[in-house]
User: Fold this.
Amino acid sequence: MAGSSPFVNDDRSALGPLPLFGPGLWRREAQRALSFPGHAGNASFQGESLSGGSAKLAEEEGGRRRESPEVIRVGMAEGHVTGDPSSILAALGLGSCVAVMLYDPARRIAGMAHIMLPTSPDGVGGPTPYKFADTAIPRLVEEMVKAGAKPSRLVAKLAGGASMFQTAAESPLNIGQRNIQAVQEQLKRLNIRVVASRTGGNVGRSVFFYPATGMARVRSIGQEEQEF
Amino acid sequence: MDDIIGSLSSREIDILREVGNVGAGHAATALSRLLNRRILMTVPRAFVIPLREAPDLVGGAETLVVGIYLSVTGDAPGHMLFFAPLESAMALVEVLMGPQEDITEMARSALEEVGNILTSSYLTALSDFTGLLVVPTPPLIAVDMLGAILSTVLVEVGKASDYVLVVETEFQDAGRALSGYMVFIPEGIALTTILRSLGERQ
Assistant:
């Protein structure tokens, strides 16, 4: 038991309630997520993304504050489609998960699915079709079409699918590669071309997808942020 | 598909927290003996959250951490992750091996061993408490974003559930130079087994 060691403090309340866990923290994280690339610190990109953007956006000129874009966090096993050019789709801390980003350049409709596993056990995906590559991609395409995208115009970008731990290829932890394969198969089946990807390797990634341009940015620890 | 994790009662979650309390107490003792200094621990917390929220635990998905992962096999399969912010992990290595420039191979090895010792103590206590046989696999280390590490660990849980049960404890030394988190994530199937072993479920 804890008390048997002279070094362990029996009075656990001595540490006090720590603010590090719990819903309070998640709220804090949601705020932190606003420090995404393209916001504030990257003026050149802002200009780029705003050119031809919707009238809803106020340009940042002469110190006037422009409307800050809405960051839509796409969590594990979630998917989201938007045609709002001022929004940004974001998947933070991708490990073995894969973010699939679909884009209709003519209509500027963007979608992102945050996929965890290659195949659903029942082929349907239950309440979370976005969890599995085989159900997530057809569902994402369906939602894109509902939002006005045309399937034949869709192009895809991929990020994630890393091996975070050095393990045998068949280890369940090494699911990243299988996720990527499953995603590629589904996209091929639906005739959607993969135009760019930042996948594999052994680094975690955060990815941001911009409906205004179809551009994506990826960041990893210790590496320069990349546009792709 | 029955979602065991999503349908746990609050009483059952309390019991699982107590299991975590016993385990973490042992792990804290092991850590204090290893480092020869006083270690404080928080009262463990146990909570069920949707998968999508899990990577945001403890400081956020993009926080740079050193994570040591051990898979738990046996009667109550699950996952054990010990992680610490990079500075804290470096401080831990310094206590064990003297000042280091970087997370070298030796430092990684030392940290893996710390994860091994903590997890083994935790699981021994869990085993004594429940009478179940639980065995950890060798430790694996990653230095990266917490969300990337945690989400990879959660893949197995995600196969059977849309929720995750997290039993977490924070350890700190008195000077707060060292701090680390121990997170126990049982598989859904293990929850039934653990609760049964304690006479909580038929």
Notes: The helical segments of chain A are 23-32, 43-50, 133-146, 175-189.
